[in-house]
């Protein structure tokens, strides 16, 4: 089953008179259940591509399909709904709300999901705090946690709504290499146990080796897949 299909996508940013072609004719098909790395140096277009797949931004040309749904045919409200129901996000800088506790940060995106009762919300938060090993830190604020712990909170938050696809933009870039690898191992475990598809970007060779498929991007263009997948 295909979970993401990117078809002939260009993204051009216009700043004053200047145009930057951040993505050029990107074509990508991602099967459900993948643990996919988008590899490339700084400025190559990784965040732009993840933002388009995440329906945070729209392409200048081309189409992005999530499942069978063409995101270009949707209204902003429909896109927000699609994001809330099917996507989870993990960011380089964690993006936790500083005034909320660990528990509240994980619960926060569930508050807009009317289909979850209060009880189910609590069960979900508890479950995912257990999954990421932070049940004891439920009352801590982000500034009382290490970088690795903050990213675990962000992972629990991304997963709590049972997304089919998690997008992670350089999730290890602000972590030391040992912590970064443990975060990737945790993501991989969740991918294997829960079947959640992950697409993450990185410029770190050790991190990209943990993927089961690697696509490289250079100067806004996808490079033919050259890196041999380790599995899958
Ligand atoms: P990466 O995530 O691989 O570092 P980006 O996707 O952030 O790369 O950026 C790709 C290119 O698009 C860069 O040249 C960057 O300067 C440009 N760019 C990114 N975002 C914007 C924006 N909002 N406005 C103008 N140019 C942008
Ligand atoms: Mg980036």
Can you put this structure into words, describing what you see?
By secondary structure, the protein is of the alpha/beta class. The chain has one domain: 3-Layer(aba) Sandwich (Rossmann fold), CATH 3.40.50.300. It contains seven helices and ten strands. It has helices spanning 46-53, 76-86, 102-107, 118-131, 147-159, 177-194, 205-208; strands at residues 2-15, 18-31, 35-39, 61-66, 69-70, 87-90, 165-169, 197-202, 213-218, 221-223. The strands form two sheets. It has a six-stranded mixed beta sheet with strand order 6-7-8-3-9-10. It has a four-stranded antiparallel beta sheet with strand order 2-1-4-5. α4 (118-131) crosses α5 and α5 (147-159) packs parallel to α6. The radius of gyration is 17 Å and the shape is globular. The two termini are 15 Å apart. The mean pLDDT is 94.
CATH fold category name: Rossmann fold
- Please identify the oligomeric state: single chain
The rough form would be described as globular
Strand content: 25-35%
Helical stretch tally: 7
In whole angstroms, the N-to-C terminal distance is: 15 Å
In the CATH hierarchy, what is the class? Alpha Beta
Bound molecules: adenosine-5'-diphosphate, magnesium ion
Topology:
Elements: E1 2-15, E2 18-31, E3 35-39, H1 46-53, E4 61-66, E5 69-70, H2 76-86, E6 87-90, H3 102-107, H4 118-131, H5 147-159, E7 165-169, H6 177-194, E8 197-202, H7 205-208, E9 213-218, E10 221-223
Parallel strand pairs: 3-8, 3-9, 6-7, 7-8
Antiparallel strand pairs: 1-2, 1-4, 4-5, 9-10
Helix pairs in contact: 4-5, 5-6
The structure holds adenosine-5'-diphosphate and magnesium ion.
């Amino acid at each position: 089953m295909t979970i993401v299909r990117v078809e002939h996508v260009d993204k051009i940013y216009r700043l004053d008179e200047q145009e930057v072609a951040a993505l050029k004719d990107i074509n990508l098909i991602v099967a459900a259940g993948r643990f996919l790395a988008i590899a490339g140096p700084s400025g190559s277009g990784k965040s732009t591509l993840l933002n388009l797949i995440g329906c945070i931004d729209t392409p200048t040309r081309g189409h992005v399909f999530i499942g069978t749904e063409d995101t270009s045919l949707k209204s902003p409200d429909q896109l927000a709904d699609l994001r809330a129901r099917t996507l989870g996000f993990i960011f380089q800088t964690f993006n936790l709300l500083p005034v909320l506790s660990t528990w509240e940060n994980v619960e926060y995106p569930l508050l807009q999901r009317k289909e979850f009762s209060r009880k189910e919300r609590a069960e979900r938060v508890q479950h995912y705090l257990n999954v990421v090993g932070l049940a004891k830190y439920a009352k801590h604020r982000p500034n009382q946690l290490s970088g690795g712990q903050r990213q675990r909170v962000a992972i629990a938050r991304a997963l709590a709504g049972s997304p089919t696809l998690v997008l992670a933009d350089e999730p290890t870039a602000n972590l030391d290499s040992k912590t970064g690898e443990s975060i990737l191992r945790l993501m991989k475990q969740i991918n294997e146990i829960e079947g959640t598809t992950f697409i993450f970007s990185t410029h770190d060779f050790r991190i990209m080796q943990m993927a089961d498929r690697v696509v490289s991007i250079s100067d806004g263009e996808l490079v033919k897949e050259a890196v041999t997948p380790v599995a899958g």
